[in-house]
Amino acid sequence: MAIVSALFAFCCLAFTGSSAHAQAPNIRYGEAVPRDVREMYDRGLQFLASTQTEKGDWQGGSDQGPGGTGLCLMAFLASGEDPNFGLYVNQIRKALRAIIRDQNAQTGYLGNSMYHHGFGMLALAEAYGVVDERNLWPDGKPPRSIGVALELAVRAAITSQKKNPLGAWRYSPDSNDADTSVSGSVLVGLLAARNAGIEVPDEAIDKAINYFKQMTSGNGQVAYSGLGFDDSLARVSIGTLVYSIGRRKDLPEFERALGFLKQRLEQQSGNWAEYTRYYQAQALFQGDVDAWEKWNKLLIRQLKQMQQQNGSFKGSMGGPSIDTSMSLLALALNYRFLPIYER
Amino acid sequence: MNPMIAFRLSIALSISLVSGFASAAEPAAPSRLRLRDETALVGTIAPSPDPKVLRWQSPSFVTPFEFPIEQVNGVHFPIAPGKVNPQGTFGFELAGGNLLYGDLLSISPTEVVVKLASQPEPIRIDRGIVHRLFRQVDDSSLVYLGPTGLEGWTQVEPKEPGVFTEETGQIVASAEGVITGDIKLPELAACEIEISWKGDADFTLDLGGSSQGGKGGLRIEAVEQFIVAVRETPTDADLIPLQAAPPGEGRLRLLAFIDQSKPQILLFSPTGDFLGELAISEKTSGPWGVRLTNRKGTVRLERLRISNWNGSRPQEVVASKSRMHRTNGAIEYGAIEAFDAGEGVFIVRGDQGELRVPVAEVKSVYLSEVAPVEFNGISVTGLDGTRLSGALLGIDATTVRVQPTGVKDPVSLPIERIRSLLVVGPPREAQTPTAGAIVGTMQVADQFIRGWLVDGRKGTDIGCLVWKPQAALNAVALRTGVSGRVVYKEPPPAPSQAELQRRQQLQIQQQQQQGAVLNAGQRMVQALAGKFAQPGGAAKGAAQPLLHLRTGDTISCKSVVVTETGVEIESDTTDAKKISHERIKVLELVPSDPNDVKLKKSKKERLLTLPRIQRPSPPTQLLRATSGDFLRGRVTAMDAEKIQLEVRLENREVPRKLVSHIFWLHPDELDPKAAPPQAVVTEGRTRVQAYRNDGFRLTFDAEELAGGTLSGTSEILGACRIELAKIDQLMIGQGIEQAVAQLAYHRWRLKNAVDPKFASEGDGDDEGGRNTGTESNLVGKPAPDFTLALLDQEASFKLSDQKGKIVVLDFWATWCGPCVRAMPMVEAAVRDFPEDKVRLVAVNLQEQPKQIKSMLERHKLDVTVALDIDGVVAERYEASAIPQTVIIDRDGKIVRLFVGGSNDLGDQIKSTINDLLGVK
Q1: Most buried one in A276, B149, B397, B543, CB count within 10 A?
Q2: Which chain A residues touch B if contact means CB-CB below 8 Å?
Q3: Is residue A14 part of a domain?
Q4: How far apart are CA B387 and CA B404, in angstroms?
C-alpha cells in the first residue's frame, strides 16, 4: 500500500537553474579521487589488513572461504597501491595463497559454493599478470601458479555450466537449476578471466548471457530463480553488468535493465545493501558514467556515515570483512585500477 | 434559628472522625514550599534548628535556602499511597480546631494526659482547651474522602487541560473552568466541605445535579462578596447566606445533610450550629454528583468528605454542658471527673450521682465548651487527620516539633505522617532588593522564585548564577545542568505603530554608528540597543543578510559565502568567521519578518515531507526564491553571485539574487523523539540565552556575573557580555532549545513521510491483521456524490446517476506500484458480473491523461478511468492511502472500503458483490 503523502513528488520550482555541464571526465582514469574516498578507503583497508589471519583469509563471518578472501584481495588490488612493492603486498600475497590453497587441485573448484568459486575466480583473474609470482610463495614451492589456478577454475565453471540444463549456475556445481545471483558471480569471473587472457569459449558466455536475457523482464527487472520479478536492484545491477562486460550492450535487455537502474538512483536496497552497492557501482559505471557519477555522490555520503571507528563497515552481509570489502569495492570505481572496471 | 438558645448538635462528631485516605499521588512526588510572595519551590525541608527560620533544599540549587518563617505560606508534603490510620484509642478535639490521636492516660480537673505514638513521653493538655474525646471506631459509612489529587476528577471546561491542578492532593484553579468529580452521592448523604479562595471569590460548588449544569442540587456559591447555599429548580429557589467573603483570602467549612428522596438539605456549621434548611420539595432527576466551577480568583477544594447518613436529624443537645455519649445513643450529662486507666472506666458525676462507664460503652465525651482561639505560629495537618497549631520549635531530618497552644509539653510529629505545614500569622515585609539588583522570577523545574541574581563566578561544581529569593536570608548558586529561565519582563502585546516607528529611528541611529572599533562584547551590547529591534529578530529594511543560528541567535553579515563545511561570514557584531552547517537554521539573504514567510499549510507540509526513497540522503537545504518558490536540495557552495546545489543528484546553479532565504534542514530534526542537537550536554556548564522581547537572542556559556553584567563564552561568537538590565529573559540550559524550537523559522523542519502499512502482506491466517473492508468510518454512510470527466470519453461520470447499480471505485495512480498490481485483480473480480448490475470506475488521482493511457496500454488494462484532477473526490472518500477500493450498494451506501491491494482483494470484492446481489 502506498501512502499518497509519502510519494508526493517534490516539484514546483520556477528557478532558472540549469544543469552544470562540466567537462566530460576522463573515464578511463577518472579525475582526482575525492579526499573523502581516499580517507575512507585507507581506513577500510587498514581494518582488513588488521583482521586478516595468518592463513591469509578472514574469520568471523558467514563468508569465510575463497570468495570472501577474493573480495578482500580485490579491495587491496583496487587501491592503487603497488601489489608487488606497496603497502599491502603481504596482505595481497597471503590472500592469494589462501585462495589457491583452497582450490581443489583436481576439479579446480574454489571453496564450497559456486558463489565462492565465482568471486575467487574473479579475484584470481584480477591478480593474474599483476602480482609478481616469483615472491608469492615464501618456500618457493607453489602448489600451482595463478594462471594455472585460474584456468582450472574456468574449467570447473564451464564443466558445471555444461551439466546445467539452464546454461547457468547455482550454489552447487552439480545443480540442475540456476539463479541470477550465483550465475552473476561466476559469469563475471569468467569474463574477467577471458579479459585476463584465459581461454573461455564464446559458447559458455553466450549461454550464460542467454540465461540472463530470459531472466530479464520487459521493464528491466531481473528475476532470481524462476520468473518472479521484483525490485531487486542487486539483480538488475548484475544483469546490467554482465551485459556490459560481456560486450552485449546491443541487447534490449541491457537497455531496459540499465534504464531501470537509472530511474532509481536514489532508491535504497532494503536487503543485502552492500552486495547491491557492489554491483550497482559497477553496473552504473559500465552502463552510464553520468548516472554513476550522480549515484557515486550518494554512495560516498552514505558510506561516510556508515564507516565505523575501526574503519570497517557494519552491514547485512554476515561479517565485517565482507561488508567492508564490498563497500570498498563499490567505492573503488573512483580509482578504476581493477581491470574488470575498465570500460 | 434562635440565637438565644445555642444548641450544639451531636453531628459535630462527624467532622472530626477523620481517618485520612491518602493515595493516588506519586510516591516520589516532591514536597512543595509556598511563600507569601507567590514563590513556589519543590524539594525537601532541611533540618532547621532555629524555629524562626525554615531551611529548604531545592534540587535545583546547591545548598538550602533560608526563609524567615513569617515569609512562608506553607509546606505541602507528598501523599504516600494507601490509607494512613490514626494511632491511638481516642481522638482529642482541642480548641481552635486542633485534633490529636493517642491513648488516654488520665483526666484531672486541670489536665488531660495523653500518650502519643510518635513520642515516648506523655503530653499534658490543659483541660480547658479539650472540647471532646471520641473513641475511634471503624468508619464503614464513608463514601468519599478527598480530594487526593485530580484522580477521579475531570476538567470539562475549558477543553485545554491545565486549569485545574493538584497541590498536595487539593484541587486548585486560578482561571476560569469547570471540573467534575466521579463521585455519586448516596441518597442519604452527610457531607463535610472545606473550600478556600483567594482574590475576588467567584466560584460554585455543586453537590448534585452534575448532569444538569449543577442546578437542582446543593449549590455553594460566591455571590457579591457573600457565600451562600442555594437550591434551585426550574420553578423555585431557596437561599441561605453562609458567610461574608470580602476580597482576599477566605475559607468555608460546612456540614450538609442531604436526603435526595424528599429532597431535604440541612446545613450546619462545623461546630454544630444549625444554619438552615433549603426548603424546596420539588424533586430533580439525574444522579447527584460533584462539580466545581471557578470564574475568577483562585479556588481550592481542600477537603470533601461524604458518608452515608442514617436520615435522622442530628440529635440536639445542650452544647454548653459537659456530657458523655454512649454507644447505645444515650447521653449522660454531668461533670467528667476522671478516667481510671487501670480499670478503663470514665467517672461521670451527674444529677444521679457518680457513674462509672467502661470505655467500651463510650462513643464520645464532651468536656467543656471551648472558646475560639487565635494564635500565630504554624498549623500542621497529618495524613491521618491530625491537626496541630502552635509555635514551631524546630525541624530535624525526620520530625517537626511543635508547641501546640494549650498543651504543656512539646509534640513531635514524624514528617512522613504530615500532609501540610502552614504558617499562620501576619507576613513580614519582604526584603528590598540591594541597589542594582534586577528583580525577576526564576522558573526552574516547576518552581517559581521571585528574587534576583547576585554576583557569582563559575566554580568547579557550581555555576555562576547565584539566586537570592527576595524572601530568603541567603543567596544560593543554581546547579550546573539545570534548565529554566529568569523572567524579568513578560513579552508585551504586539507593539503599536508608533513604537515600530520609534524602533526604526533607533535602528537608523545605530546603523550610523557602525564602523566604530568595538570589542565583541561591546558590539553585542550595542546590538541589544536596537540592531534587532524588529519583532521576530529581523531588522526590517536592513540590507545585510541575517544568519539565524539554531540557538536562536541572529548575526547580521556584511558578507556571507557558503562552503562545503559551513558558512563564512564577516560581521560587525561578532568576530566569528566560520560557522559549521549543523549550527545554522536560516540564512536570510533578503531579511524579512519570519512571520511573513508563509506558505499554505498543505503546501508547506508537502514541501517538508521527506519521501522514503530520500531518507538515506535527505536534502540539507531549502531555498526560497524572492518570488516565493521553493527548491529542496544540498547547497554545495554559494558566493556573491550564485548558489550551487545538488537536486536529486543533479548539479544545479541558481543566481543568488533570486534567493531570499536558505533554510537548513537537519537530519536530527526528522525524529521528533531525538534530543535537539543543540541540547548539548549541559552538565558542568551553565548555558544561557539572553533574550529580549523584540526577538534578540544571545547564547553562551555563562562564567561570571559581576555588577549586573553576565559574561561568558560562545563557541561560535567568542567572548560575550550582556547587561541584565537590558534583557527581558534569561533562558538557562535546555529551556533554550525548547523556546527556540517554537520560533517561526525554526518550525521549518523536515519530517519523514508516513510509512506504508503494507496491509497486503498479512499471512491471511491472522484475522486481526486482515483488511476486512469495514474498518473505515465511511462504511455504512451514504457515498459522497461526485461528477468526474472520464478518460477518452465525452460523457462524464456522476455517481448519483448509478442508483440501482453496484459501483466499485478504485482509487489509484500510475506511480503507485501496489495500485498497478491491484487493478487487474479488481478488474477481474468485477468482470464476471453483468455490466448493468455492477460498474467499476478507476478514479485516477491528479494525473495527466497521457500518463494514464500509457500505463493502461503497457499493462493491457481496459477499465473506465475517471479523472480526479484536483483530488477532491479522493479527499471526500478519505483516500489518503492508495490503492483504495470502495464498494457502493444499489442504494448509494458505502458497504466496503478496502485500503491496500492484498492478494485476496479480488475474492473479497467478489464476495461482497455476491452478497449484495443476493447470490448464494
Answers
A1: A276
A2: 1-10, 12-20, 22, 265-268, 294-295, 297-298, 301-302
A3: no
A4: 10
Q: Is residue A207 part of a domain?
A: yes
Q: List the single residue in A1, A7, A15 with the smallest CB-CB distance to B654.
A: A15
DSSP 8-state secondary structure symbol assigned to residue B473:
S
DSSP H or E segment with residue B440: strand B440-444
Q: Residue A297's closest chain B neighbor by CA?
A: B649
Inspect the interface and report whether the beta carbons of B613 and A266 lie closer than 8 Å: yes
**Closest residue in A to B629 (Cα–Cα):** A13
Are the Cβ atoms of A4 and B880 closer than 8 angstroms? yes
What is the pTM for the complete model shown? 0.59
* Alpha-carbon distances, residue A98 vs A76, A95, A105, A123, B822 (angstroms): 15, 5, 13, 12, 52
Cβ within 8 Å, pair A3-B655? no
- Say if residues A169 and A111 touch (Cβ distance below 8 Å): no
Q: How far is A10 from chain B (nearest CA, A)?
A: 7
The candidate with the shortest Cα–Cα distance to B661, out of B621, B623, B635, B607, is B623
Domain holding A268, by residue range, is 38-341
In chain A the beta strands, taken as DSSP E runs, fall at 2-3, 18-19
| Separation in Å, CA of B768 to nearest CA in chain A | 18
DSSP H or E stretch at residue B688: strand B687-691
The residues, ordered by sequence, that sit 6+ positions from B547 with a Cβ below 8 Å of its Cβ are B554, B555, B557, B560, B567, B569, B579, B584, B586, B587, B588
Q: Is residue A132 part of a domain?
A: yes
C-alpha cell at B130: 479539650
Nearest to A1 among B614, B845, B881 (CB): B881
Give exposure, B309-345, as e/b (b: 16+ Cβ within 10 Å).
Answer: beeeebeebebeebbbbeeeeebbebbbebbeeeeeb
Say how far residue A249 (Cα) sits from the centre of its chain.
19
Domain count for chain A: 1
**Of B461, B465, B458, which is closest to residue B484 (Cα–Cα)?**
B465
Could you list the beta-strand ranges (E) of B168-289: 170-173, 177-181, 188-207, 218-222, 226-232, 237-244, 250-259, 264-268, 274-278
Mind telling me how many Å the CA of A6 is from chain B's nearest CA?
Answer: 5
Per-residue pLDDT tens for B276-330?
888 777 776 666 788 899 998 899 998 888 878 877 777 666 667 788 888 777 8
Q: Which amino acid is present at B776?
A: S
| Phi, psi of B888, deg, nearest 5 | -115, 130
Residues B253 and B738: their CA atoms lie apart, in Å, by 44
SS3 B394: strand
Q: What is the CA radius of gyration of chain B?
A: 38
Summarize pLDDT for A224-255 with one digit per residue, the tens: 987 567 789 999 999 999 999 999 999 999 99
Q: Phi, psi (5° rounding) for residue B636?
A: -100, -25
Ranges A224-233, A258-267, B573-582, B626-635: which has the least confidence? A224-233
Peptide bond into B263 cis (omega under 30): yes
CATH of residue A196: 1.50.10.20
**Tens-place pLDDT, residues B168-197:** 557 899 999 999 888 888 888 888 888 989
- Chain B residue with CA closest to A22: the answer is B651
| Three-class DSSP category at B181 | strand
Residue A2 lies in a domain: no
* Domains of chain B as residue ranges with CATH: 16-101+116-124+371-424 (no CATH), 149-308 (2.60.120.200), 536-668 (2.30.30.100), 759-917 (3.40.30.10)
Predicted confidence at residue B82, as pLDDT, reads 63
Taking residue B834's Cβ as centre, other Cβ atoms within 10 Å add up to 8
Q: For the segment B368-407, what is each residue's pLDDT rounded down to a tens digit? A: 777 666 667 888 888 887 888 889 999 998 899 999 888 9
Instruction: Select the residue of A12, A17, A265 nearest B654 (Cβ to Cβ).
Output: A17
